[in-house]
Amino acid sequence: xxxxxxxxxxxxxxxxxxxxxxxxxxxxxxxxxxxxxxxxxxxxxxxxxxxxxxxxxxxxxxxxxxxxxxxxxxxxxxxxxxxxxxxxxxxxxxxxxxxxxxxxxxxxxxxxxxxxxxxxxxxxxxxxxxxxxxxxxxxxxxxxxxxxxxxxxxxxxxxxxxxxxxxxxxxxxxxxxxxxxxxxxxxxxxxxxxxxxxxxxxxxxxxxxxxxxxxxxxxxxxxxxxxxxxxxxxxxxxxxxxxxxxxxxxxxxxxxxxxxxxxxxxxxxxxxxxxxxxxxxxxxxxxxxxxxxxxxxxxxxxxxxxxxxxxxxxxxxxxxxxxxxxxxxxxxxxxxxxxxxxxxxxxxxxxxxxxxxxxxxxxxxxxxxxxxxxxxxxxxxxxxxxxxxxxxxxxxxxxxxxxxxxxxxxxxxxxxxxx
Length: 419
What we know:
Helix content is 37%, strand content 17%. By secondary structure, the protein is an alpha+beta fold.
């Protein structure tokens, strides 16, 4: 063999070894990734990142994120103080079982249902808000997150924060709302189309109508039935804001959801779900619509044990100011001055809890998609719920910024419908 052949053979052998080495490294990397995912899954007690999240902090990417509990609820990780404690206090105030304020009782209709807080057994300082998944009764949910108001920063924000928010979307004050993200089911391709916050920030006054139209276009036609239902829902929320003068909302959003699949497909799923819910329920799991929860769930409201209220939040609106003026510790969440009483943690047991509003006749988690008559689950049904309350403050005036945003949003939706 010549020296030239030896060099070629040596190069080939070296190349093969490199390929084998690369394959080995890739395999090892995949194993490490799977191991990390398995450990993360174990740490989260079976909870998984929310697959249909369209905006906000995402688990695994940001420091805090949103998960889905095995019982179908959504877990929103508490943000660092003072934002996280403020949002916790807001939900606790609105859903306090002793609440008799008609303004707050009416507000419950426009929020996701709140079921207290949850924390992993091996991470007692990680606190999550436990909320209803507004999308769970839909087969192919089309979802849009729209930030409402003329300002996306609160009155106590530092100048740097204000300037940052204005730079992100200078038209916020003029338009009054910002599309943070959307996910649309396209019937013609049986696939989803997604757009993030950069899409929304690229919309100007002349293109905002077309930008919103995209959310209601299913690949074949514009879903005017969903637009009509959305308008009706937003009008109800506007009426609430025009009737109250005790709360101001900043950087809060509306979550829009409508059914993207055909009537036949949606109906088949509901029928199948009703049968599967009864026949495939795990041993010990109730079939009357009530959902069991891990014992390590911290029941902050409405939960009764041996006739004793587990916790009560009779916090006044002035406490929201206190969270800002005094500040909160950057350490553990149990340093936050909220009266939370927890039960002993035991992951091997489950327990039932009564609903946050204290109505013992109503199950805590209503399985709408399984237990409501199919005729009531219309394919063109729409949900519009208010979300994100880390910047809610007491006031004695109407929230004109939020009202302005709602009115402008309604105007654009009406224009889409008329065209």
